[in-house]
């Protein structure tokens, strides 16, 4: 009998986001919003966005190629490739098929998997699928590869500042430095209309912001409760936030992450509050018998629970917020940009630590799972992943444009969505070296891409 693979999870990561960006404080002034509405009210700093040179396909190509190069992984070593995205380029042809250009030139077309779609949850569905594959009898010994990528754009108005863009690629296999504790996963699925995209001629969503926030928090409650039940059943001891060193939440905007962590603290108060001090318990006690539905809109509970959670927030949640606040909402990539932020800021002290990961996609699909960090050795080690992510360099290469330029780009991108027979007009100087970009869309809607390589660079693709 063959032993099952152990400690299956993420062996390597790469993140890509466009260099073009706009600052939220400048958007406040441009939109005539009150001072702090976006920077404090949303908790955001900067928003990265695609020009007509870039899209979800080019970002995914860049992330995958960079991961293969940085970690010296041959395309022939990939046996499953799954993409999670809600950015629709084609209603039939999956994004994964465009990525096959990186593999078929090396003769590897034996790669399972296609795209997963459900709002911001698709990346997590792709990740869990790849982990399940490695743990199953179908695994052939090769790596899995997950791509979570989106361009989040909104119609002109109050939701537009919650946009962003980015792609995360993750290599999946056994003996991983980021091992998923798969058996504890808590999931909640439901049918709601909180955020959806019914207008096929537009990439802008229909959003009920108040409903979406309450759905997010309800899903968090249910996923956390189910996670805790499984943990206690399998380990014989209760789970609380004291068992988690880091908490990473899907981040449409940072203020919701703050509310989410406070909600977890409230859950612990109701069910497993042994680590909370007397002051915290006394503050929350008036809300013990508050009806559940009322608790999602009670401003006093929100304020007090955030006050109680504040003492733990910077330690457990703060390290995950760097990239989401700097890039904006990346939909499927958002959660994993938070994980990359933890690696970047705490890699030297992660061995043996646990991170809770909460993934939410409107409509809705949600899961809460956990990752155990293991230092590892060589190229598949926490320290090497953190170094290879090269986050300081990427953040330092941002090109900050005016809100006027951002608005002009958004109007241009409206005309590009679903269009044919055009070539991009944006300046390629805005692209970092090694970035894939769109060359043209022909009269038959066929898309062609190229890569901006450093001067004198050789083709690094190895088979």
Automatic annotation (TrEMBL):
Catalytic activity: acetoacetyl-CoA + acetyl-CoA + H2O = (3S)-3-hydroxy-3-methylglutaryl-CoA + CoA + H(+)
Record Pfam families: HMG_CoA_synt_C, HMG_CoA_synt_N
Active site: 86, 120, 250
Gene Ontology process terms (BP): acetyl-CoA metabolic process; farnesyl diphosphate biosynthetic process, mevalonate pathway; sterol biosynthetic process
GO molecular function: hydroxymethylglutaryl-CoA synthase activity
InterPro entries: HMG_CoA_synt_AS, HMG_CoA_synt_C_dom, HMG_CoA_synth_N, HMG_CoA_synthase_euk, Thiolase-like
Keyword tags: Lipid biosynthesis, Lipid metabolism, Steroid biosynthesis, Steroid metabolism, Sterol biosynthesis, Sterol metabolism, Transferase
Functional pathway: Metabolic intermediate biosynthesis; (R)-mevalonate biosynthesis; (R)-mevalonate from acetyl-CoA: step 2/3
NCBIfam families assigned: HMG-CoA-S_euk
Function: Catalyzes the condensation of acetyl-CoA with acetoacetyl-CoA to form HMG-CoA.
Protein name in the entry: Hydroxymethylglutaryl-CoA synthase
């Amino acid at each position: 009998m063959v032993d099952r693979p152990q400690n299956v999870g993420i062996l390597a990561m790469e993140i890509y986001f466009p260099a073009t960006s706009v600052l939220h404080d400048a958007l406040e002034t441009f939109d005539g919003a009150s001072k702090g509405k976006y920077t404090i009210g949303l908790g955001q700093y900067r928003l990265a966005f695609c020009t007509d040179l870039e899209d979800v396909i080019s970002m995914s190509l860049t992330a995958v190629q960079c991961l293969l190069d940085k970690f010296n992984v041959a395309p022939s070593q990939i046996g499953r490739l799954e993409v999670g995205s809600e950015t629709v380029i084609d209603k039939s042809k999956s994004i994964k098929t465009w990525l096959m250009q990186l593999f078929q030139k090396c003769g590897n077309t034996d790669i399972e998997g296609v795209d997963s779609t459900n709002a911001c949850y698709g990346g997590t569905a792709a990740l869990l699928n790849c982990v399940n594959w490695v743990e199953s009898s179908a695994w052939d010994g090769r790596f899995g590869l997950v791509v979570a990528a989106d361009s989040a754009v909104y119609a002109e108005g109050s939701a537009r500042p919650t946009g962003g863009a980015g792609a995360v690629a993750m290599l999946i296999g056994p003996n991983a430095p980021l091992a998923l504790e798969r058996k504890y996963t808590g999931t909640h699925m439901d049918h709601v209309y909180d955020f959806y995209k019914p207008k096929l001629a537009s990439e802008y969503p229909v959003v009920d912001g108040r409903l979406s926030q309450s759905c997010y928090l309800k899903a968090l409650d249910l996923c956390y409760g189910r996670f805790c039940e499984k943990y206690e059943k399998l380990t014989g001891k209760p789970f609380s936030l004291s068992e988690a060193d880091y908490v990473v939440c899907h981040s449409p905007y940072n203020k919701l992450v703050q509310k989410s962590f406070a909600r977890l603290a409230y859950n612990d108060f109701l069910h497993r509050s042994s680590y909370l001090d007397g002051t915290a318990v006394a503050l929350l006690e008036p809300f013990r018998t508050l009806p559940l539905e009322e608790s999602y809109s009670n401003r006093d509970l929100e304020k007090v629970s955030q006050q109680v959670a504040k003492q733990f927030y910077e330690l457990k949640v703060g390290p995950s917020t760097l990239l989401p606040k700097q890039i904006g909402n990346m939909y499927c990539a958002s959660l994993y940009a938070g994980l990359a932020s933890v690696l970047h800021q705490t890699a030297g002290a992660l061995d043996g630590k646990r991170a809770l990961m909460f993934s939410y996609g409107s409509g809705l699909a949600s899961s809460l799972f956990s990752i155990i960090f293991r230092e590892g050795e060589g190229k598949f080690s926490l320290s090497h992943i953190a170094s290879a992510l090269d986050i300081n360099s990427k953040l330092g290469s941002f090109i900050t444009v005016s809100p006027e330029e951002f608005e002009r780009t958004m109007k241009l991108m409206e005309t590009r969505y679903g269009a044919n027979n055009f070539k991009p007009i944006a300046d390629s100087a805005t692209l970092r070296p090694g970035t894939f970009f769109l060359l043209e869309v022909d009269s038959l809607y066929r898309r062609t891409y190229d890569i901006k390589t450093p001067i004198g660079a050789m083709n690094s693709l190895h088979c």
